[in-house]
Amino acid sequence: MIWSVAVALLGLLSLSIPVGIVLFLLGFGIDQFFSAFPLMRGLGQVVWSASNHATLIAIPFFVLLGEILVRGGVAEKTYASLDKWFSWLPGGLIHANIGTATMFSATSGSSVATAATVATVAMPQAERLGYDPRLFSGAIAAGGTLGILIPPSINLIVYGFLTQTSIPRLFLAGLLPGLMMALAFIVITAILCKIKPSLGGESRSFGWGERFASLLQLIPIIILFTVVIGTIYAGWATPTESAAVGVAIALAIAAAHGGVSMRMMRDSLLGTIGITAMIMLVITGAYFLNFTLASAGLGRELQAMLTGLDLPPVGTLLVVILLYIVLGFFIETLSLMVATIPIVVPVVIGLGYDPVWFGILMIVLVEMALITPPVGLNLYVVQGARKSGTLSEVMVGTIPYVLVMLAMVALLVLVPDVALFLPNSL
Questions:
Q1: What is the pTM of this model?
Q2: CA dihedral defined by 121, 122, 124, 127, rounded to 10 degrees?
Q3: pLDDT (0 to 100) of residue 219
């Protein structure tokens, strides 16, 4: 049954069928061919249970928060401010790309939205200042992946919902690895541009007066992040409530930048509806697939197969990591998560691993799927913003950052406290 489900999953996805529909079709197939019971009769109850949960209300709020910031003109001013602080480093403006992606990751919760925002603002600067198009665009694609690791993260909300894991603990666990990866992106960029200065274009320096004056543009974003995340950790609000407060603050920030209009609100709401509908279809499909897989005994079969490999827990974990790396070449991130969580997470937890820690490890692994061909969404988003050159240039530019992600995976395996220190301490 394992191989049949795997082949069916890849085959249906290769036909460009929407992921949510694929998950339902797999559930129907398992019901027909591998179950002695009429599982279809539970479809209505399963779909209702999957969608009737207060936690999921946080998803449209966080999507709307990001949409308002993206369409409200906040990105340009944030980028200009970070340019003044980072452009003196080897690599110049590339560091502003990473810094802006990090700050928007801490508010939008979406990697694709983050990459699209930074690419739209930054790409016109690359040609004008003579930057290497490969590293410049690769840094934007990689920086955008931080959107699903640094809280608030929509993917972490989905993981927490599907595994019944504490979302505030997941948010805390993702903060330190996310910031470490952002810093590592900056360091590796500086090293590469120091070795080969032509990659980074011209370094520019600004006076301290200009730098401190530009901080005024960053204060609203910092306040937004502090309120949204701080109210969750202080116990004053649930993730859903804090997201609603964040939307109100984002509207105030956009209004202060003169970016609020009827057209902006219409586009933000329509974008939120489209993204939320896609996510909810995937979640309900994943819930139904999880129901059919559990009823048909696939979890027991997979556990027996992994046990039959006669590997220690670390060896089994390495097999799971390799599985995610390979699948990441072919399956989009959210789809990869919801399709594998029902199968993999029970096995990993059964080996004694912490579900919060594994959630962060999984997110780092699926981050790589965003910037590895042929299905890396961030690659296509950045290439679309470039409007010139080839997709292969963006792919080459992401290679140093993929290596950083692999190093983070190794660090999480060797030192689990990198993820667990904050949730265990607080």
A1: 0.78
A2: 180
A3: 84
